[in-house]
Every structure is written in C-alpha cells, then in structure tokens.
From TrEMBL:
Top-rank taxon: Bacteria
Record PANTHER family: ALL TRANS-POLYPRENYL-DIPHOSPHATE SYNTHASE PDSS1, GERANYLGERANYL PYROPHOSPHATE SYNTHASE
InterPro entries assigned to the protein according to its UniProt record, in alphabetical order: Isoprenoid_synthase_dom_sf, Polyprenyl_synt, Polyprenyl_synt_CS
UniProt similarity note: Belongs to the FPP/GGPP synthase family.
Keyword Iron-sulfur: no
Cofactor entry: Mg(2+)
Keywords on record: Magnesium, Metal-binding, Transferase
Entry's Gene Ontology BP terms: isoprenoid biosynthetic process
GO molecular function: metal ion binding; prenyltransferase activity
Pfam families on file: polyprenyl_synt
The name this protein goes by in its record: Octaprenyl-diphosphate synthase
Originating species: Bacteroides reticulotermitis JCM 10512
Length: 278
C-alpha cells in the first residue's frame, strides 16, 4: 500500500486528513491494481511479487474483466471526492498508464537503445502514478497551485526512483523479489543498466544479442550473457547513480518544508524506495 500511504502523508503536510483524501487514496490504489492485472495479461506474466497472477490462476478473460471492474470502481471513488481537479488527475493517470504501456510495446519492436524512450516509458507507467498520488493529496488538502505542483514533482521523482530500483532487481536472483532474473529481457524489455552498457561500449556481440532480446528470439543463455555484460560494464552502478540524482531532487523539495514528523516520514519513505530489497 505504498501509494495510498504517500497520499496520506502528503495531505498531512497541510493539516488533517478529510474524506476527499481517503477517497483519492482508495481510487488511486484501485487504479494501480487494475493496471497490474491488465499488465500481467499483456506481458503474459504468471507471477506478481512472488504470487500467482490473476491470469495464471484463472485466465485472460477473467483478468481483463476483473481489471475493468477495478478501474470502474476507482472512478466511482474519484467521484466521491467531489473535487473536479482530483477527478481529472485520476482520469489523466488512466490515459498515461495506457499510453506508457503502448509506448513500451512499440519500443520492443524497434532496434534502438534509447535512454530517452526508457525514461518516457517509466514516467508514464510508474512515475505518473506516484505523481498522481502526491498531486491529488495536495488538492484534497486544499494546497495552492505552487504547493500542489511541487507535490506532483516530488511524486514523479519518487516514482522514477522506484522504477529504476525495480529494474536493478531484475539483474539479480532473489526469491524475495518474486520474479526470475532477466524477466524484463524475456519480455523484450531493455532497462537502464544494459542500455548504458550498450550505448557506452558499443560491443557488437552484445548489441546483436540485445536485438534478439527485442525480437523475442534470445535464449536464456543469451539473456544471461547480456545481464553479466551489463554488470561488468558498470550498468548497475550507473543506474544507481541516476536513481541517486532523482532521490536528491526529491530530498531538495522536502528540504523546503518546515522540520516535522511528517517531513521525516516522507524522507524515510524515500529512503525505503531506494534502499528496499523487494
């Protein structure tokens, strides 16, 4: 429940938490869950954080309909906020999540290794959700436009950190994470560590394997080779450095706030995002 927690923490910066804040938190968590159920169908994933996905337990038809039901319920709770600005935030988020998924699918089919496209995808698929949480929290608490904009930016930076950390996980084997090593590459996705290695060192063999990954033709051994290549060329360190830069941007926003327990809690939240093991 990281996202609703973020909604509540940001709203508390302005004082007490009212019904519109709670409804916004529920709406965004439901929309997040709906997107995960649909993503597992699109990606043909059978696990989600170490548990069987809905499509693995039932089938794609049940998964799509379940996701649709969660999405509709999310919009009902957005409406209960009685705040048109929050309803617009939630609606735009639904567009961003779908747009991000389409952008990711189109990127799989091309043979470029663009960091810019990578960041476009994660901003829409992950960072947009965290930004919607902090933005809607600020709106529900009656913060003015400058503070609401700063809150939205804080959420975006947190979301970028969250996704880069998740992508780093994919290069290591751990039962805690709940997905096999190289799962992203099995789905044709190249993430920041390997993109850095490919663009910095230009090894033709590695590029050839990367293209096979994008075409869905790479063997498990080839994926293993590309993972080790990214590690050997400093891809993990580079990704961690970029994540640290976004973390610092978020900390800079928090540093503008008066010292308080809520500010400390938001700082701890940010540290958890970048230091977590699952």
């Amino acid at each position: 429940m990281m996202r609703p927690i973020l909604v509540l923490l940001v709203a508390r910066l302005a004082g007490t938490i009212g019904p519109s804040t709670l409804y916004a938190a529920v709406s965004l968590e439901l929309l997040h869950t709906a997107s995960l159920v649909h993503d597992d169908v699109v990606d043909e994933s059978t696990e989600r954080r170490g548990q069987l996905s809905v499509n693995a337990i039932y089938n794609n038809k049940v998964s799509v309909l379940s996701g649709d039901y969660l999405l509709a319920t999310s919009l009902i709770y957005a409406g209960r906020t009685k705040n048109l600005d929050i309803i617009q935030v939630v609606s735009r988020l639904g567009q961003d999540l779908a747009d991000g998924e389409l952008l990711q699918l189109s990127n799989v089919s091309n043979h470029s290794f663009s960091e810019d496209v990578y960041f476009d995808v994660i901003r829409k698929k992950t960072a947009a959700l965290f930004a919607a949480c902090t933005h809607s929290a600020a709106l529900s608490a009656g913060m003015g436009v400058p503070h609401a904009d700063a809150a939205r930016l804080l959420g975006e930076y947190i979301g970028v950190c969250f996704q880069i950390k998740d992508d780093i996980f994919d290069y290591f084997d751990s039962e805690k994470i709940g997905k096999p090593t190289g799962n992203d590459m099995m789905e044709g996705k190249l993430t920041l560590p390997v993109l850095y290695a490919l663009n910095t060192y230009g090894d033709e063999q590695a590029k050839s394997v990367a293209i096979k990954v994008k075409d869905g033709l790479a063997t498990p051994d080839e994926i293993g080779y590309l993972i080790e290549y990214a590690k050997e060329k400093g891809g993990i360190e580079y990704a961690a450095k970029v994540m640290g830069e976004y973390k610092q941007k978020a900390l800079n926003i928090l540093a503008e706030l008066p010292t308080s327990e809520i500010r400390s809690s938001l700082e701890a939240y940010l540290h958890y995002v970048t230091d977590r093991e699952i």
